[in-house]
Amino acid sequence: MAGKRTRFIQRRKAVGHTQETLAEALGVDRTTIGRWESGRGEPQVWMRPKLAQTLQVSLDELSDLLAAGPSEQTVAVTPAAIPVAASSAMASLTEAVGADAADSALFLSFVSQTNVDDLVLEQLDADIARLAADYVSQPVATLFREISGLRRMVFRLLEGRQRPYQTGHLYLAAGRLCGLATHVALDLGQFRAASTHARTAWSCAESAGHNELQAWVRSIQSLIAYWQQDYCQAADLARDGLRYADGGTIRSRLLSLEARASAACGDQAGTLRAVQSAQDARQRPLALAELPGVFTFPEAKQWAYAGTALLALGSRQHVSRAIAASSQAITLYQSAPERDQSSGDLLASHLDLATAHLAGGDLDGARDKLMVVLEAAPERRTASISSRLHAFGDLLAQPAYARSVSARSLRDNLQEARRRPALTNLPEPAQ
Fold it and tell me: Which end of the chain is more exposed for a tag (fewer CB within 10 A), N or C?
C-alpha cells in the first residue's frame, strides 16, 4: 500500500509552496500534486528536473523525497549530499544518467516551441514587399494602418519564442516595417517620430545582422537630417552608410544623398564627386536582390537628386546641368509603370525645374512647372514638397521680382494653393 510522502510535503512547504502554487509552477493540476504526496502517483521522468529545480533539491535528493513509507522520519531535507551505500552505487548512477537524459528531453521540448512557422514568415515577407511597392504610388493615408498593425504584430511575435533563424527573420521584418513607419512620419514632417522609428529600425537591423538594411536606415536618417536643415550631419550619415553598402542600389542612394547634402553645405567639390560616384556605382553589377518600392533606388530618383544637388551649386553651368537632370528624372518616371511613378519625386523634379527657370529669368517656364505642383491632389503634397514650395515663395519675394506682374501672379497662385489642406494627419493606427 502506498505511503504518504511526508518529507516531500515538508520540502514543498519549506520553499514556500502550497499544492496550488506548486502545480501552477509545474503546469499541472493541483490533484496531481495531491497524488504525488499521498503516494498514489509518481512524477513522470521528464517532469523530475523541473520539479527538483522548483523544490531546490538535486535529482538524487528528489528521489529520496519520493521514497515514501509509513516508518519514514519527518526531517527536513537540505541540499547537503546524501550518502549512497556502495551496494547501490551502480543503481544510482543508472538513475542519474536516466534523469540527465530526461533533462535534455525537457530542454528539447522547450526549444521546439515556437509561435511562428515558415509559412507565417513567408506571408510576412510578401506583405512587406507589397507595402514597400505600394508606398511609391499610393497615398500615405491608405497604407498607414496596415503598416502600423503589421509592425505591432511582429513586435508581439518577438516577445514570444522562436527558433534562432526565425527570430533573426522577425528582426529583419521589424526593421523593414520600422523603416516604412519612418517614411510615413517623414512625409508628415514629424521628425522626432521619424527619428524614433529609424533608431528602432537600426537596432532591429543590427540584431538581424543585415548590412543592407543598416545602410538603408542610414539613408533615411540622412533624409531626416536634411529636412531638418542639418546638412552636414545629413552628408555624414550618408557617408557612414557606405560602410554597410554591400550591393544593390543602396550605394547609389547614399552617394546621391551625400551629393545633395554637400551642395546644401556649399561643398562644390564634394557634391560633384558624389554625383559622379553615384553614376559610377549604378554601372556596377547589382549583387543583391532588393525589396521593391521605397527599398530600392531607381535611376529616375537618382537623376532627381542630382538635379537638386546641381541646382543648389548655383552657377549657370550647374543650373543648366540641373535642368537636364530633373528633366531626365521626369521622363523616366513618366515612362515607368504607374505603380513605379513616385508622385513625390515627380513633384520635386517639377519644383526644381521651376526654380531653375526662375534663376534664368524664365518666368513663363517657371509657371508651367510650378502649376503641375500646385494642381496636384493635397494628399500628394508631403512635408518635403510643402518645404520646397515655401522656399520657392521666398525666391519670388526677392526685390528682383517686386515689379513683375508674372511673379506677382505666381505668388498669388502659390498662396492660394498653400491655403488648401496638405498631407498633415492620418487616421489612428489599428490597435
Answer: N
**Cβ atoms of residues 413 and 131 within 8 Å:** no
Helix (H) or strand (E) holding 239: helix 231-241
List b or e across 334-373, with b for residues whose CB sees 16 or more CB atoms inside 10 angstroms.
eebeeebbbbbbbbbbbbbbbbbbbbeeebebbbebbebb
Nearest to 49 by CA among 108, 105, 104, 103: 103
Q: In this structure, are residues 220 and 250 in contact, taking their beta carbons and an 8 Å threshold? A: no
Q: How far apart are CA 351 and CA 119, in angstroms?
A: 45
Q: Residues in the chain with pLDDT < 50?
A: 1, 69-82, 84, 426-431
Q: Mention every residue, 6+ apart, whose C-beta is less than 8 A from residue 131.
A: 143, 146, 147, 150, 180, 293
Residue with cell 550619415: 237
Rounded Cα–Cα distance for residues 306 and 321 (Å): 9
Cβ atoms of residues 423 and 380 within 8 Å: yes
pLDDT in tens, 44-83: 766 787 888 889 888 888 888 887 544 444 444 444 444 5
Half-sphere exposure of 115 (CA within 13 A, CB side): 11
What backbone torsions phi and psi does residue 211 show, to the nearest 5 degrees? -60, -40
Give the C-alpha separation, 260 to 359, whole Å.
18
Tell me the DSSP string of 342-404. -HHHHHHHHHHHHHHHHHTT-HHHHHHHHHHHHTS-GGG--HHHHHHHHHHHHHHTSGGGTT-
